[in-house]
Amino acid sequence: MNFHKLAAGAAAIVAVLSTTLVAGAETVTVTDVAGREVEVDVPVDRVILGEGRQVYLVAALDPDDPFKRVVGWRDDFKSADPDNYAFYLEKFPQMEELPTFGGFKDGTFDVEQAVSLEPDVVIMNIESRQATEDARYIEKLAAAGVPLVYVDFREHPFTNTEPSMRLFGKLFGEEERAEEFIAWRAAEIRRVTDVIEKANPQRPAVFVERAGGYSDDCCMSFGDDNFGKFVEMAGGTNIAKDIIPGTFGTVNPEQIIASDPDQIIVTGGWWEAYVPGGAWVGVGPGRDQAEALRKLEELTERPAFTGVTAVENGQVHAIWHQFYNSPYQFVAIQQMAKWLHPELFADLDPEATFEELHERFLPVAYKPGHWVSLSDGE
Amino acid sequence: MASERAITATVETAGGRGRYRALVWRRQLILAGLGAALLFSLCVDLALGPARYGLGEVVRALLTPDAVPQQVRVVLWEIRMPVALMAVVVGAALSVAGAQMQTILNNPLASPFTLGISAAASFGAALALAFGVALIPAAIAYVVPVNAFVMAMLAALLIHLLSVKRGVTVETIVLLGIALVFTFNALLALVQFFASAEALAAVVFWTMGSLTKATWPKLAVTTFVLAAVLPVFARRAWALTALRLGEDKAASFGIKVARLRMETLMLVSLLAAIPVAFVGTIGFIGLVGPHIARMIIGEDQRFFLPASALSGALILSASSVASKSLVPGTVFPIGIVTSLIGIPFFISLILSGTRRSW
Q: Which residue among A1, A226, A315, B271 is least packed, with the fewest CB closer than 10 Å?
């Protein structure tokens, strides 16, 4: 106990000394999405990303070189989003050399490896909180003078996305740019929510199938957050809202027939690395829309979708799954609003919104292909 | 004197025969009762679901499927029916597999789980779910079950190869099985560690077991295996019963113990691997089903075998009903329900038991 105190004290002294030595650095107290107050020297120069897909935001803050601060990251970007990985790799070949951490959703990692990379901060996803605290990583990292903060783009994106973006901005010393992104993003969301609020249209019943066709189990879905919430913001009613207690869950296939949704939205992505030749719908940047449409059509032939209004009327759509785990989800909200209320959002062009996002904030070029709909053919 | 003794003996034989007949009659009654309960549970399973159809509509859909709206027909025949029947067949198969493992290994703890067969199947399935690895080439839709089956059979083969070595006793086989359980669980954890978030969810859901994966072809395969294996066991009922008296006694009756044990182990592996491959790991049926059967009907294989099948089927069918009713609309992993329903019932049977059942 005494030894620990001593060690912590020594570490603190070292931390204070090193702070004073680094010119221009300033110690600030930030609040992360878990409500923890953490002292960090900003701007940070060396960062460990607890999830590779945090790069969706990092790229917007450091478009000249998103990897200039990254000293290590989890290896999920490559397999979860091979399309964007390829685009980034082409422009920033050095990302292939970055040390990676394995580890599943819990985000476990090797503290020794982390410390040896000498990061200024470790940014973890909130899902990993339990595992991180059980393993006492925070204390161990703190003893080495490395602070850890939690961000979240997946569990409760409705409430946590903006604070997470702001936190990144603060850590990177790019607050202005972060605020610009936040303000523009909020305005783009209001283009949907304001119209819905004003028109107060009848809300179609919507079933969101998470990663449809990924396994033969039908039907994974969302509770009242993430895509479940986005659907509500876009003026629909998520049929799984009162069925799934958390953000993620699975509904009984029969429930879909019982609820008889007016619209079905399937999330998809290029999951060849996980399920080769699977029934998933391969939407994503630059992907073949005709092929995605064919697979979406096949999914509607499952028993759970028999005679459902959405299928009868061709109101079945597929959208890029990674919107569920990135600050770009407002584009999905716009596109879903267009599907649910085509007459209200006739002028809205989500394609243009996404293109503007790439032009204004991101280092890679926009490529279409993030969604398809069976109603397109009509 | 002599004739008097003869008369007494005749009376006693007659009395013994009467008692035996009564015993057989009572056991047949128990079997009939189990069968009736199973039928009732199956009907409830078919009648319940989030789409609240009336009883009349359900009966009409079952009897005259062409006369009801397409949706009702699909719900009954494509969604509820495969799941309900799969519960019955898988429950029976796992329970019989556990029963015969306990018999040949002479160990009350033996089951497809304790010998590592289920753990091996989980590992095989996880390989396919997380990395798309196919152990032998198979159609995309069947990579997961084929992988699970291949690993399960490999585990069974390993147990068998080790068990035919000289000087290996049943206790050693059980210990080997436990070693396999830990090995495959570690390998499964390794796969989970490297899996993506999406794949991890699929693996975890799979290892918890779910009947919603049931389809008519899968049901047909499982039923075929069960139907092929059960008569073989039935024909060997006496030999297997004798085995429970002890290896030496069984051998003295002229039973080739080693061969009987080996053949049974292979059949049991098949019986355990197929259901696990199709619906994931469903816990405790293989352990609890046969014990319940033994407690209520005894060791005589002629009754113990069908009773095991029926009690396993009943537990899983009842669990299927409960998993639909607990949280309406969602799919509650049936493996969890099975344990939560089966275990209290099992404990109450153990504690209220007046005679030793093992």
A: A1
